Amino acid sequence: MYKKWQKSASKQPPKKSWSPEEMKIIGWCMNKNIKVSISPDWKDSLTRWQIEININGKTHIDPNRYGDDIVYDKFNKYYKYYYDKHNK
Predict the structure, then answer these.
(1) What is the pTM of this model?
(2) How is residue 44 annotated by DSSP?
(3) d(CA 26, CA 64)
């Protein structure tokens, strides 16, 4: 007899449409080896996300957790911060 495995709940990131200005900033940062990503917070509800920032191979994790409604706002703020800081 075979036992069926139940699927665990999955977390789908919220949908986002990117403006041309946002894409310019994100592209510039990625070319400079600055990457920001969101990942599920598996210890919390299905709508909480953590933000990881990778700069030249060093990963930093934002200690706060964000809901679906604001995670991309914070994501964009990080990219804009590094863009403004290094693009002079």
Answers:
(1) 0.80
(2) S
(3) 22
